[in-house]
Structure formats: structure tokens, C-alpha cells
Amino acid sequence: MYTQCEKCKAIFHVNMREVTIAKGKLRCGECNEVFNATKTLSTTIPKTYDDLEREKKITLQAQEETVDPRDEDRMIHAKPSIKTIKKNKKQVNKLKWLIASTVLLSTLLLTQVLYNYRHLFLETPRNEPEKIQMLNHNVFAHPNESGALLISALIENTAEHAQPYPILELRLENAQSNLVAFRRFLPKEYLKNYSKGLLIPSKKPISLKLKIKDPGKDATRFQFKFL
Questions:
Q1: Is this model's pTM higher than 0.70 or not?
Q2: What is the CATH number of domain 129-226?
């Protein structure tokens, strides 16, 4: 599947799993704009503005080359024969049938796509992970499991509306800022009693807990990011 940034028109190849997880909201890698990927979702690569202008220019050039100004009088006064009229009528009917068939097939394909991914087009809460903040966090050894760490944290949704719980990205780095370990956690993995469709309320601190394998002494820094 393909989608296109609404701001800079950059085109991206996506899969429905990514789009579904992100609730249709993707961040453009070119202009960093967050856009609704479902609005331009397509099974074919969308044409860019340059492509459309190039096709228009080629069409205009072809038309100019096929018309000889010296033949305009003959074209105006020429009377088509009965055979020509029948041939033209046949071509028009054939073109109408081709257009009707194309429209019908396109409608059936679009209907199938809309039905298969109808859950993406239903009204859903806005997803703004950039407005979720980490208020504080603590990392300590697991009291009952050796070789494991517990991470407790407090997060808050600063948006004016409730929104889906984000994916939590955890990066562990050494003193030289080199990556030691990396993992992403789904809401059900860090939130107790999480259920599908549960929203994080606006401006209300929420506590979470994570259990991870102890990466060793090399990991001296923890970085969190919400997706």
C-alpha cells in the first residue's frame, strides 16, 4: 500500500499493520508533519505534481504537432461520409463501454478496500503522542528475580482531549551514548488492566511499570519516547 504526505506530497510505502497501530497517523520523514495516512491510502503509487505537469505538456505538444494550420479550411468545410459517421459512432460506443467498465471495476475495488479497512475510517480519537510527557521514572533491581530490572514511571497526557495509549520506546545507552539495548512496549505490556480501546485521560498522571532484562553495567542512560 502507498500513502502521501498532505503537506509536502512525499510518497511512502506502508503496510496496514503500521497504519493500524498508529491509528492512521504517520509522521512524514521529509517535512516531519503528522498526517492522516488513510486519506491518501492507495494500492498504486500516487502521481506527483511534476508527473502530472509533464503528462500535460506532452499532450499539448502532441496536439500541436497533429494539427496543420494550413488545413483548417479543409477541416471546417469537409463533410464526413456515412461510413465515417458509423465508424465514429462505433468508436464512441466502444469508448463509453470502456469508461463504464473502468468506473465499475474501480468502484468495486474501492468498495472492497473500504470494507476491509473500514475500522480505519471510523471516527477515532486523535493520536498525539508528542503531547504525552514523562513526569518521572525510577529504575531498580527486581526484588524477586535476579538479572531483571523494574522501571516505574509517571506519564501525563497534556492534550485537551483523551487519546489512545502510545507505544513506549525504551533505549538503553552507555556513557558514550552508544546503543546497548532497544525495545518497544505496547500499552498492554506496561499498563495494568489495560483493555483494547482504553484512552489515556487528559491532564491526569498515569503510573506504569516495566520489567526488563538487566543489560549490565554498560547501560548507564535510559531514554523514553512515545510513538
A1: no
A2: 2.70.50.60
